[in-house]
Each structure stands twice: as structure tokens, then as C-alpha cells.
Amino acid sequence: MKHFFEENKERFLSELLALLRIPSVSASSNHKKDMIDCAEAVKNSLIAAGADSASVYTTKGHPIVYAEKIIDPSLPTVLVYGHYDVQPADPLELWETNPFEPSIRDGKIFARGACDDKGQFFMHVKALELMTKNDALKTNIKFCIEGEEEIGSPNLATFVVENKHLLACDVILISDTAMISLENPSIASGMRGLSYIEVEVTGPNRDLHSGVYGGAVANPVTILAKMIASCHDENNHITIPGFYDDVLEATSEERALLAKAPFDENEYIKDLGIETVYGEKGFSTRERTGIRPTLEVNGIWGGYTGEGSKTVLPSKATAKISARLVPNQSSQKITSILLNYFQKIAPKGVTVSATEHHGGEPYLTPIDSIAYKAAAKAIEKSFGKQPVPVREGGSIPICSLFEKELGVKIVFMGFGLDSDNLHSPNEKYDIANYYKGIETIPYFHQYFAELSK
Ligand code: BES
Ligand code: MN
Ligand code: MN
């Protein structure tokens, strides 16, 4: 297998680059055709890698690719989940090279989706090829690669519920997270959930002259800013009533375990170009993004934002606001808490409309399962170092539904880095991480089969 890998490395890379050239942006209706083309390309890559069958399933939204290779029904089955959709690339002017014309600089692939998640799920396609062409596959393997993860997976749940038999497996394996570094490998033991809302504040029925009316009429931008500012207290604790009610606090043992993961706060600060970190009192930086729920403003606008100045009292102001959730919080419940809060605190003189976007439940995976042990062993084998568990700050919305419907646990074997600029300009994936992933995945299948015996 090693020899085959060495012989085919260049091709493994160029095939990923071809996939990255398809602008599969799920959020934009302009890319509907690209989504179909990308799903087809993924399907073809799975057939070429040795899958028995691969199909593109249409949904109300973007298609889902399913493939399988069943070598022996009595062996354990691994379901690989990933997503071929990517986030929008804008602001385009901040990219050093075209986001959909991958560029290799300094051993890194720069392109939208390079790490999230094309570069990562494609490692599994290439690992499948390695295993099938070298007669080394030790498990059955299924693939479910969707095209709507970045918009909250609105149609995947229906597909899962309707195709439970097709998706039946012993474990779900996902490469869509990060590790600390190649020198300090880690495995995500949890993901946060998400509630996402939009708040629109309306004041006067039209934009007004700010000199003629300002001071006498509520300014929606000011009101919205005040409402948002009221959400945190001086300790950066969230003040919204009921927000923390269901939080399952991490135990001191778990906090101690998480604290073992190496983390250089000065490096972190330097990388971000900030003076210092900022967050909830009483928690470390890693804890703030891993085990604590948070509230963020993702965007805010209203009034005049064009060139120069215009004296205006705007009629409307809008913000997109999301909360990251931790175990035992319910996305539906927090969404309604947020919606109610913004409606309720609106002062007379404006009207507030708060609406819901997508969400997702938090997810925690046990670190004593066979699957986690197989992943840890696989990483130890290829990295020469035992991985440590970390709690990820991001979300993969389908996780809890997968577990509920398919009755199996998920193991995250991510090879990205926090510095890969996911969702940002100049997203990248190190070629070394890509290759390391392809090398590690076959060990996972081998150890999972062995430990399942
Ligand atoms: N792959 C990410 C989640 C992620 C990011 C995990 C960083 C670990 C580290 C995923 O594609 C993602 O971006 N999820 C969204 C979910 C949303 C759009 C519903 C997120 O976390 O914002
Ligand atoms: Mn992703
Ligand atoms: Mn993403």
C-alpha cells in the first residue's frame, strides 16, 4: 500500500484540485448547476476508487451522494459523512488568488473548500482507492456526502430517516474538524450546537433627515445596538433569561483533561492580530470555545453605509445573531428564547421582527468507545504520538440526528488546522495534512475491524 501511495501521490493531489475548481456554493442559487456537477464528480470519484455502487440522490435542495463497498456483511461497516458544498468565497478582493482556481504556495493548497470539507472528505475517497487496489479493506464502507452542510443540512434529515437501512452502519466517521497540529494530534470529542436568528428593528416608515427628526424619533440602529449590548454583562456572561438553564456543566475531571491539550495563547493572540483574548470570566480560551455556550453577532447593517457621509435617521436596522450551544441545550428551545427576548426588550417607538434561520444540536462522543480507540490508535500509528481529546467550537448540524436515527456513535478524525481560514478569505489545506489523512484512514478501518471482533 505504501508503494502504491508513493506512486500515486501526485494524482491524488491533482484530483483534489479538480474538485476544488467546481464552485459548489450551497448558499447561492446561482450555483445550482455547479452543485449538480460537483455531486456527479464526487460520485464518479467514488466509482473510480472502487465503490461497488455510487448514486446521486436528488432532494428538495442540493443532491446527496451515496456510495458503498460491501466486502462481507458479517464485517463491521463504517459510514463516512462529509460535505461537498462550500461557503461563499466573498469578500473576493481579500483573496490572494482565485478561490476556485486552487493555487499551491509553500506546501499549502489555497482554495475555497480546500479544508472545509472537500480536502477532508476526499482523503476518504483516496483511502478507499488505496485499500481496494491493494486488497487491504477490512471493513464495509459507505459514503454519505451531502451538499447542504454549510446551510444547516435542511434536507439531509429526511434522507436519513427515509434511508435508514441503506445507511445502517456500526460507526460514523467524519473528517470535518481540526487538530492542534501535526506534532500535537488531537481528536474532537464534541461539537457545539447552533441557534441562528435574524432581528429586524423598524422605526419611522422611511429614512429621515437626521437633523430635522434626530433626537425626537427612535433610531433603529441605536436601539438594535443597545439590545445587542444588553445580551452580555461585564463578565461577558450572557444575560438572556433561561439561556443557561439546561447547560450540562463540564466536570472538573473533564476540564482537567481538556487543559492537557497544548495551547499557546500568545501564538493565538499574535496570529489574530489582537491585543488580548476576550470572553466569559472564569473560563480559559479553550473552554470558552469548547465547553461554554456563546452568543455572537454575525452581521449588522442599517442606514447609510456608502461612500462619504449622509445625514440620515434610518428606518430599519438588521442583525444576524447566533448562539453556539453545549450539551443538553436544545437548539429549538434556545432559538425561541432568543426570538422572545428580542421581541420583549424592544422599547416603544420601534417594532421588532425576529425570525429563525437554521440550527443544530450539540454533540458529544464518548472517548472510551471502540471507534474512538481505533481512531486514536490510527493517529498514534501514523503520527507517532497519541492524540488528545478536544472539544470543538464549530458545529456539524446533522450529528445528533445521525446518532438518533442510526443508533450509532460518531467519531471525528479531522486533519485541518484552526489556521486553515475556514469560511475566511485564503482558505487553505496543507498538502502534508492531506497526505497524512490518507495514510491514517486505512489504519482506522483496520483497527476498527480488529477491535470490533
Ligand atoms: N467543518 C465545519 C465545522 C467545524 C469548523 C468544525 C471548525 C470544527 C472546526 C462545518 O462545515 C461548519 O462550518 N459548520 C457550520 C454549521 C452551520 C453552517 C450550520 C458552523 O459551525 O458554523
Ligand atoms: Mn465542514
Ligand atoms: Mn464550514
Describe the overall structure:
The protein has 453 residues and is α+β, with helices and mostly antiparallel strands. The chain folds into two domains: 2-191 and 362-451, Aminopeptidase, CATH 3.40.630.10; 193-247 and 293-359, Alpha-Beta Plaits (2-Layer Sandwich). The protein has 13 helices and 18 strands. Strands 1-2-6-3-7-17 form a six-stranded mixed sheet, sandwiched between helices. A four-stranded antiparallel sheet has the order 11-13-9-14, with helices on one face. A three-stranded antiparallel sheet has the order 4-5-18. The radius of gyration is 23 Å and the shape is globular. Ligand BES binds next to strand 14.
Query: Going by CATH, what is the homologous superfamily of the largest domain?
Result: Zn peptidases
Number of E-state strands: 18
* CATH topology-level fold name of the largest domain: Aminopeptidase
Dominant shape: globular
Low-pLDDT residue spans: none
- Rg from Cα: 23 Å
CATH class (first level) name of the largest domain? Alpha Beta
Q: Characterize the quaternary organization of these chains.
A: single chain
**Average pLDDT over all residues:** 97
Q: Structural class of the helices, strands and pairings?
A: alpha+beta
CATH architectural category of the largest domain = 3-Layer(aba) Sandwich
Q: Can you list the ligands bound to this structure?
A: ligand BES, manganese (II) ion
